[in-house]
Amino acid sequence: MRDRMRKAVRTGLVAGVAFAVTAGLAGSANAGTIATIKVSGGTGKFLDYGDRVECHDTKADGYGVRTYAYSKVNGEEWMQVASCWGGKDDLVQSGNAGFVEGADVRVKLCYIKRGVGDVRCTGYKHAKA
What we know:
Elements: H1 2-10, E1 19-24, E2 34-40, E3 52-57, E4 64-73, E5 76-85, E6 88-92, E7 104-113, E8 117-121, E9 125-128
Antiparallel strand pairs: 1-2, 2-3, 4-5, 4-7, 5-6, 7-8, 7-9
């Protein structure tokens, strides 16, 4: 049913959805790392699997950055994840993103270390899709 709704909503729409959040963590060994997060894509009202969630780590310091972007669609929570290491964009989609244009999207940024996982995370930042 969701697929039918999505197709119906997409008909005739040509609109990208994007937002950017910049965040850094002070007081840590990797305090100089700044990440810019952008969620974009879509030729319609919904972002689907394969649309981009980008994160760019501006400092090659041995740590990486992982971002989690969440939004609710029809009462269900959807998520996309992006990870990057040392200035490279390494894009990973997790399931189908369900970001609706104009919806509130929560973004959490974590520093990551290979073999360890999330080291330290920011609180959620809010943006409109």
